[in-house]
Amino acid sequence: GENVEQHPSTLSVQEGDSAVIKCTYSDSASNYFPWYKQELGKRPQLIIDIRSNVGEKKDQRIAVTLNKTAKHFSLHITETQPEDSAVYFCAASISGNTPLVFGKGTRLSVIA
Amino acid sequence: NAGVTQTPKFQVLKTGQSMTLQCAQDMNHNSMYWYRQDPGMGLRLIYYSASEGTTDKGEVPNGYNVSRLNKREFSLRLESAAPSQTSVYFCASSEAGANTAEKLFFGSGTQLSVL
């Protein structure tokens, strides 16, 4: 089955700096890669996703890149703000076929 | 439109006791899921139901049973609770299907402690 590795497990950045979180997946058939944000004590919520037919997707300060050949994808957050502090999870699946498999999460702290 | 509602929010059990976690969604989604979240372990799938009338094991099904009661409701049962089942449990739903977005909508979680 699918295995998703996520790094780093913790990340601290200064406010205004960029943050990058990386994930690798094992199943070359996976074609859907979402990112979820979980604030302290809250439920995970989808922030951005990408499908295997595109290499990059942006939404304001957030972007995700995908390298199918290397089987890795990354989350990029620019101009970080204190409200970006949260745990971020990457995930992978074969869309419409298999449920999401999540990475172990990255705790991002943005220091003001 | 409440989204995904799960109960209870908190529960303390003694080893060997049983309980059922309830989950309901009002978005007419076909698929429903139960995940557990442990520190440093991410979200691990316990069971899922791709459609009404079907259930399948996920990554960590041992010690759990599920029932897809109807399209709206998906319950998780612990028959004989163990300390290793201390965790935060999340129910989720999605419109998963071929060539459709798989956005998961999560419930607010159940914090379960087994003593």
Outline the structure in words.
The complex is a heterodimer of chains A (112) and B (115). Chain A is mainly β and 112 residues long. In chain A, strands 2, 4, 5, 9, 10 and 11 form a six-stranded mixed sheet that branches. Chain A has a five-stranded antiparallel sheet with strand order 1-3-8-7-6, with no helix packed on it. In chain A, a hairpin with a 2-residue loop joins strand 6 and strand 7. Chain B has 115 residues and is mainly β. In chain B, 0% of the residues lie in helices and 50% in strands. Chain B is built from no helices and eleven strands. In chain B, strands 2, 4, 5, 6, 9, 10 and 11 form a seven-stranded mixed sheet that branches. A four-stranded antiparallel sheet of chain B has the order 1-3-8-7, with no helix packed on it. In chain B, a hairpin with a 6-residue loop joins strand 5 and strand 6. At the A-B interface, strand 4, strand 5 and strand 10 of A face strand 4 and strand 5 of B.
Number of contiguous helices of chain A: 0
Helix content of chain A: under 10%
**Shape estimate of chain A:** globular
Number of strands of chain A: 11
What is the terminal separation of chain B in angstroms? 36 Å
**Class by alpha and beta content of chain A:** mainly beta
Over all CA atoms, what is the radius of gyration of chain B?
13 Å
Determine the fraction of residues in helical runs of chain B and give it as a percent range.
under 10%
Oligomer: heterodimer
Report mean pLDDT of chain B, rounded to a whole number: 92
- Which band does the percent of strand residues of chain B land in? over 45%
Structural class of chain B: mainly beta
Please tell me the overall pLDDT of chain A.
94
Alpha carbon gyration radius of chain A: 13 Å
Strand content of chain A: over 45%
Order of helical and strand elements of chain A: EEEEEEEEEEE
Largest two-chain interface: A-B, 24 and 26 residues
The description of the largest β-sheet of chain A is: 6 strands, mixed
**SSE sequence of chain B, one letter per element:** EEEEEEEEEEE
Which shape of chain B, going by the Cα principal axes? Answer: globular
